[in-house]
Amino acid sequence: MAILMCRPEYFGIEYEINPWMNVAVEVNHVRAVEQWDALHSVYTELGESIALTSPQSGLPDMVFTANAAVVWRRRAVLSRFHHAERAGEERHWRGALEELDFVIHEMPADISFEGAGDALFVGDHLFQAWGFRTDLPAHSEVARFLDVESTSLQLVDPRFYHLDTCFCPLDDHSALIAPDAFAPESVELVRARVPRLLEVPREVAEGFACNAMPLRGRVISSTAVEAIRAPLADAGFEVVSLPVDEFMKSGGGVRCLSLPLDLGLD
Ligand code: ARG
């Protein structure tokens, strides 16, 4: 699999657009680079190829490549960021995805959509979230362009403002979910479609455990994932935990730093 990443060269907390961000908290740049490098090494040691996009000064959140777009087969729906602070990223993501030969679709100007942060596949079924960063009308637009079936889920807790902070597909029939982050009816919609749901307690999800990347039988995530090592082992997954606390200061973990590019091609 190929994964899109962006070095944390200009990463920092320069504004506050989610409850985790506090401009008074400084990012330790050396540690951020070490943590990012460690994730990059895990991917390459597992045989993944990494596509790198160029970091841009003044766009501190570009390190979170999950928010570039949602991709499926060779198509990509570009993000239209909810906050003006991130809007400057859009043209860079377009350039990066064009270079990777994706056919690109743009959201109408008045509809917010934040890419794979709010759109995750279980098999070929797309789960999309609304409530904080992505507007509900984005979902049908995405489903139509990617030609996939989609289920809309409502997020209700501002700390879990993107779907990938509280939900993580593990394979075609299993996923991690932090039920507290969703409207109760939305949890039922997931339950009806995904036979094996591993429920993650709120405190564990707050450590960005669900912000994980499943890869070759492993679940790569923040150190908080250690708390669910046993249930994951029972489900057949080995945990790989990494410190990503410098990125958690911005409200992101392992998955936010990674955009899988080969979805739907296997
Ligand atoms: N500071 C970033 C923001 O608030 C973090 C993005 C995290 N990305 C994600 N896919 N959850 O937009």
UniProtKB/TrEMBL annotation:
<comment type="similarity">
    <text>Belongs to the DDAH family.</text>
</comment>
<protein>
    <submittedName>
        <fullName>Amidinotransferase</fullName>
    </submittedName>
</protein>
<dbReference type="GO" id="GO:0016597">
    <property type="term" value="F:amino acid binding"/>
</dbReference>
<feature type="active site" description="Nucleophile">
    <location>
        <position position="256"/>
    </location>
</feature>
<dbReference type="Pfam" id="PF19420">
    <property type="entry name" value="DDAH_eukar"/>
</dbReference>
<dbReference type="InterPro" id="IPR033199">
    <property type="entry name" value="DDAH-like"/>
</dbReference>
<dbReference type="GO" id="GO:0000052">
    <property type="term" value="P:citrulline metabolic process"/>
</dbReference>
<feature type="active site" description="Proton donor">
    <location>
        <position position="162"/>
    </location>
</feature>
<keyword id="KW-0378">Hydrolase</keyword>
<dbReference type="GO" id="GO:0006525">
    <property type="term" value="P:arginine metabolic process"/>
</dbReference>
<dbReference type="GO" id="GO:0045429">
    <property type="term" value="P:positive regulation of nitric oxide biosynthetic process"/>
</dbReference>
<dbReference type="GO" id="GO:0016403">
    <property type="term" value="F:dimethylargininase activity"/>
</dbReference>
